[in-house]
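User: Predict the full complex structure for these chains.
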Amino acid sequence: MTVTMKEVRAYLDQDEPDYDAAAKLGPDALPHLLLLVTEGESGLASKATYLAATIGGDQSLAPIEQAAASNDPVVRVAAAGALGRLQQMPTAITQVLLGDPDPGVRYLSLQALKIRYPVGFKAKVREISQSDPNVDIRAIAMELVPRLP
Amino acid sequence: MQFPLSLRAFIRAPTCPFSRCIRIHLKVLTSPTVAISNMLVRMRQVYQTADIGVEVTSRESLAGIPNFVGLNDLAVVPNCPSGATTNQQNQLFQNRNNVGANEIVVYFVRSLVPVLNGCASFPAGNPGAVVAQIASRWTTGHEVGHVLGLSHISGENAPACTTPDFARLMTGCGTGNITGIPTIVQAEIDTMRGSNLANPC
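Assistant: Here is the predicted structure of the two-chain assembly.
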C-alpha cells in the first residue's frame, strides 16, 4: 500500500492524534515521518517521532535517531517518550538520550527503562543516580539501578 | 444583545455583556509557542457567539513545584478519555491555588506523552485541561470546550480525517488548520451553557 504525505498529515495535524490508529498506515509511512522529523516544525516533528515508534520495526529507528539528535528539546523529549513504545530498546539512541543536557529528556528516558528493564544500561543509570544535577532524576535512577540486569 | 459583539457594543455594555461566564485559572510550567494572550483572544471570539464570557481569574507560574521535570513533560492516557488520568496528571491537578468551585484550570506544559497539543481529561472534581507548547492558537478554546462537555464533531471520518471541517472549533482533525473564526453550533452551545462550569456572570 502506498501511503501519501497527505494521509500522514491528516493524522498528525490533529490536536489529539490517535497513534494506534495512525500506526495502521504501516512502514510505508516511515519515509514521510523521517522527512517531518528532519524538516518539520516542532509539533509535527515530535508527533512524527512518536508515530514512528508506534509503527515499530527496525526502519522506525531512523526517525527516532534523527529526533534524538535534534537541536529542539521538544523533539528530543518526543524521542525519549517514544522509547517506551519500542519492543526493543535501541542501545545507542537510548544512551544518547540518557546523557542529554535537558533534564526532561533524561527523565523520560529513565521512565522508558522502567517498562522492560533492558540489559546494558545499569552502569549508565548508576552514574546518573550518583551525579545527575536534578534530585528527581537521581531518585528515579536510584530506584532503577537494583532492578536493571 | 446581538452576538458576536462589536468592540463598540462591548465597551458600551453597562455590565458584563454575557449571561454566562467561565472562570479560568492559568498555571504555567512552560509558555506555549503561540502566546497565551493570543489563545485567549481566539477563545473569546468563539465563546462570545455562545453568549459565554471567558474570565481569567488568576495566573500563576508553577516553575518551582515539586517534580517539575516529571510534570512539564506530562504523561497522559492515550486519546485522553474522559475521567482517565495518570499519576502525573493527578499530581499536576493538585495545584489549585486560588481556584474556586466550578472553575477551570488550564495548565501549560512543555509537552505531553503521547505527543498531543492538549488533553482535557481531568481527575474527578478538579476540572481543567493541559495545553502543550506546540498547541495551535485554537487549542485552549478547543480543550476547554471538551471540559465543558463537547466532543469532536462527527462526519469528518476521523481518525483518518478524509472529510475534515476546519470551520468548526471542535474539529477532531486539527485546530491548526482552522482558517477564520471557527463556529460552534446550537447543540454545542446548549451543552456549554448547560455545564455547571458556565456560571451566571
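Chain B has six helices and eight strands.
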